[in-house]
């Protein structure tokens, strides 16, 4: 039994869900999201709830059951509230700046690293050591955050790098002399 897949999604008042074939569309105050779901999973919308069921009991279908429900729940959350990821820069001389639609990072390389703002995402730099990425798609917000973090991921000896807010970096002890 898929515990996640069997849970129903309760829709907020201003969100509507529709299905056309295998494409699910979710409309809300922040925008519209569409996603293709697996044909083995059937979705039913009754009033303000959305339920999912599977047609067979093989392992792949069971896995898709919970995944599909979680993806649609994230779409509903995104169009009603949105998603935000916050990155922190830790290191001497590390800083972020935004000019127009371009994010510029100075993270210890001989050159600055630039990122263009994506069409459906908002990138804010409240201070030189903080980057906030927000949007309605959890996947796209996470992808951009991971891309920025990969420029200089945290290293275990001094803890320098770009990390998610609240991320704990396990520190290692350095070499010791004789």
Automatic annotation (TrEMBL):
Gene3D superfamilies: Ribosomal protein L6, alpha-beta domain
Keyword list, A-Z: Ribonucleoprotein, Ribosomal protein, RNA-binding, rRNA-binding
PROSITE patterns in UniProt: RIBOSOMAL_L6_1 (PS00525)
GO biological process, one term: cytoplasmic translation
Pfam families: Ribosomal_L6
Record family assignment: Belongs to the universal ribosomal protein uL6 family.
NCBIfam families: L6_bact (TIGR03654)
Role this protein plays: This protein binds to the 23S rRNA, and is important in its secondary structure. It is located near the subunit interface in the base of the L7/L12 stalk, and near the tRNA binding site of the peptidyltransferase center.
Protein name (record): Large ribosomal subunit protein uL6
Organism: Leuconostoc gelidum subsp. gelidum
Lineage of producing organism: Bacteria, Bacillati, Bacillota, Bacilli, Lactobacillales
Gene: rplF
């Amino acid at each position: 039994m898929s515990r996640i897949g069997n849970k129903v999604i309760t829709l907020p008042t201003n969100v509507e869900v529709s299905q056309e074939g295998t494409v699910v569309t979710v409309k809300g105050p922040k925008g519209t999201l569409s996603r293709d779901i697996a044909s083995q999973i059937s979705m039913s919308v009754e009033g303000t709830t959305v339920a999912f069921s599977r047609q067979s009991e093989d392992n792949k279908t069971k896995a898709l059951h919970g995944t599909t429900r979680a993806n649609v729940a994230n779409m509903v959350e995104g169009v009603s509230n949105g998603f935000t990821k916050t990155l922190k820069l830790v290191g001497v001389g590390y800083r972020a700046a935004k000019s127009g639609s371009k994010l510029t990072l100075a993270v210890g390389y001989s050159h600055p690293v630039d990122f263009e703002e994506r069409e459906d995402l908002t990138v804010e730099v409240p201070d030189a050591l903080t980057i906030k990425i927000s949007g309605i798609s959890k996947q796209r917000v996470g992808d951009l955050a991971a891309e920025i973090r990969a420029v200089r991921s945290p290293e275990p000896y001094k803890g320098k790098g770009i990390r998610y807010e609240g991320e704990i970096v396990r520190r290692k002890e350095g070499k010791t002399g004789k």
